[in-house]
C-alpha cells in the first residue's frame, strides 16, 4: 500500500530526482561511511532501481536494512525514521501516487535529467558521473528517439536532450582522461544536432569540441571550431551566452599563438556578448557560461600573453564569483591563480592558494585536474629551496598518491560507449 512519505520530497530538495544521479551520490556516501565507520562492507551497499521506484512511490512498509539506512542518513543528514516517515498533512498534496519518474516544469524527464547530471558533475567530477549518463542515454533516451512503439515526448525536446547529454558524456570522458571516448561522443552529439531545427545545440557542441581541442594542444583546430560555431549561430536568433563562450575559445587559441591583438579583440567580444546575455532568454541547449567562467578563461588568455597583473585580477574575480558548490571549477581557477602568483614571484601567496586547492579537491574525480596539479607541482618544485614551498610539495605528493588510488577505482571501460 502506498503512502505519502518524506523521501521523495527530500530527494527533490537535494536535486537527486533522477535515479542515476541519486546512485552517484549514494555510492560516494557509501564509500565515505565505510571509511568513517571502519567497515569496508558498507562501501558495497547499493540501492536497486526497483527499491528506488518503491521508495519514490511511497510503497514501503518499514525501513530499509540497517546498512542502507546508515548510508542514507549520511547522505541526507536525517534519521531514516524521518526520511521514510509520513509527510506533514499540508505537504501531502505535493507527492503524487503515480510512477516515480519526476517531470520538470516543461513536461520532459530528459530535461530534468540534464540539470541533475550537470549538478552532480560539477560537484563530483566526470569520473563519478560518466557511467550514469551513458546508462541513462542507452536506457532512457535511446528508446524515446528510436523505439518502435514511438513516444509522446516532443521530438525536438528529445533530440535536444540527447545532444546535450551526449556532449556531457564527452566532457566527463575527457575529465576522466579518455579523450578517445570524448571525441566519439562529441561526433555523435554533432550528428544528432542535425535533427534539430534550432542550430543552437550544434553550435554548443562545437564550443565543447573547440575547448577539447585546446586541452589537447590542437590550437588550429580549436580556432576553426570556434569560428564554425559562431557562423552557425549567425544564421539564427542571437544566443549571447554561447557567443561569449565561442569568442572566449577563439581568444584562448589566439593567445596560445601569441597573437595579442586578436586575442584581446576576441576577449572583448566575449565580454560584450555576456553583457547582452543578462537580458536575453536562456537556451535549454546551451551549457552554462557566466561571468565567473569568462573570468577564468580570461585569466588563462592573459597568462599566456604574459599580462600577469591583469591575469591575477581575472583569476581572483573568477574565484570570488564562483560559489563553493562548484568544487571542480574553483579548483581549476585556483590552479590558474597559483600559476600567475608563481610567475609574479609571490611565493607565499602562491603556497597559500596551493594549500586551499589541495584541501578542496580531495574528492573531485578529474584526471584533467590531476594533470594540472602535476604541472603545478613542477612549477613549485623550481622553488623547493623555500621551506614553505617544500611543505606544500610534500602535501602535493601525498595528494597525488591519494588521487591515483581514487581515479584508479573509477577507470572508464575500454572501447566505444
From TrEMBL:
Write down the Gene3D superfamilies for this protein, in alphabetical order: Tetratricopeptide repeat domain
Q: Which InterPro entries match?
A: TPR-like_helical_dom_sf
Q: What broad taxonomic lineage does this protein's source fall under? A: Bacteria, Bacillati, Actinomycetota, Actinomycetes, Kitasatosporales
Protein name (Swiss-Prot/TrEMBL): Transcriptional regulator
Amino acid at each position: 500500500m502506498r503512502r505519502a512519505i518524506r523521501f521523495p520530497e527530500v530527494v527533490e530538495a537535494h536535486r537527486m530526482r533522477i535515479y542515476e544521479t541519486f546512485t552517484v551520490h549514494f555510492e560516494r556516501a557509501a564509500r565515505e561511511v565505510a571509511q568513517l565507520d571502519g567497515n569496508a562492507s558498507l562501501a558495497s551497499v547499493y540501492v536497486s532501481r526497483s527499491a528506488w521506484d518503491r521508495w519514490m512511490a511511497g510503497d514501503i512498509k518499514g525501513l530499509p536494512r540497517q546498512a542502507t539506512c546508515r548510508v542514507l542518513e549520511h547522505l541526507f543528514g536525517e534519521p531514516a525514521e524521518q526520511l521514510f516517515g509520513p509527510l506533514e498533512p499540508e505537504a501531502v498534496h505535493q507527492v503524487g501516487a503515480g510512477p516515480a519518474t519526476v517531470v520538470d516544469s516543461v513536461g520532459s524527464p530528459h530535461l530534468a535529467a540534464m540539470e541533475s547530471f550537470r549538478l552532480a558533475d560539477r560537484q563530483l567530477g566526470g569520473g563519478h558521473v560518466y557511467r550514469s549518463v551513458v546508462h541513462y542515454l542507452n536506457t532512457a533516451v535511446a528508446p524515446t528517439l528510436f523505439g518502435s512503439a514511438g513516444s509522446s515526448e516532443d521530438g525536438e525536446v528529445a533530440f535536444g536532450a540527447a545532444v546535450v547529454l551526449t556532449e556531457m558524456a564527452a566532457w566527463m570522458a575527457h575529465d576522466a582522461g579518455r579523450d578517445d571516448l570524448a571525441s566519439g561522443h562529441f561526433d555523435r552529439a554533432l550528428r544528432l544536432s542535425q535533427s534539430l531545427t534550432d542550430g543552437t545545440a550544434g553550435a554548443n557542441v562545437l564550443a565543447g569540441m573547440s575547448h577539447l581541442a585546446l586541452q589537447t594542444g590542437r590550437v588550429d583546430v580549436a580556432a576553426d571550431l570556434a569560428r564554425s560555431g559562431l557562423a552557425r549561430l549567425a544564421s539564427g536568433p542571437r544566443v549571447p551566452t554561447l557567443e561569449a563562450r565561442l569568442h572566449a575559445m577563439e581568444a584562448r587559441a589566439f593567445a596560445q599563438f601569441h597573437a595579442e591583438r586578436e586575442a584581446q579583440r576576441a576577449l572583448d567580444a566575449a565580454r560584450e556578448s555576456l553583457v547582452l546575455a543578462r537580458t536575453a532568454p536562456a537556451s535549454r541547449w546551451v551549457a552554462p557560461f557566466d561571468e565567473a567562467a569568462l573570468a577564468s578563461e580570461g585569466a588563462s588568455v592573459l597568462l599566456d600573453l604574459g599580462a600577469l597583473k591583469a591575469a591575477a585580477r581575472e583569476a581572483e574575480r573568477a574565484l570570488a564569483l564562483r560559489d563553493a558548490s562548484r568544487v571542480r571549477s574553483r579548483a581549476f581557477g585556483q590552479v590558474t591563480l597559483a600559476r600567475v602568483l608563481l610567475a609574479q614571484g609571490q611565493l607565499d601567496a602562491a603556497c597559500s592558494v596551493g594549500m586551499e586547492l589541495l584541501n578542496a579537491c580531495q574528492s573531485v574525480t578529474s584526471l584533467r585536474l590531476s594533470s594540472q596539479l602535476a604541472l603545478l607541482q613542477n612549477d613549485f618544485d623550481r622553488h623547493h629551496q623555500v621551506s614553505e614551498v617544500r611543505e606544500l610539495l610534500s602535501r602535493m605528493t601525498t595528494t597525488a598518491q591519494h588521487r591515483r588510488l581514487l581515479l584508479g577505482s573509477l577507470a572508464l571501460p575500454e572501447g566505444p560507449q
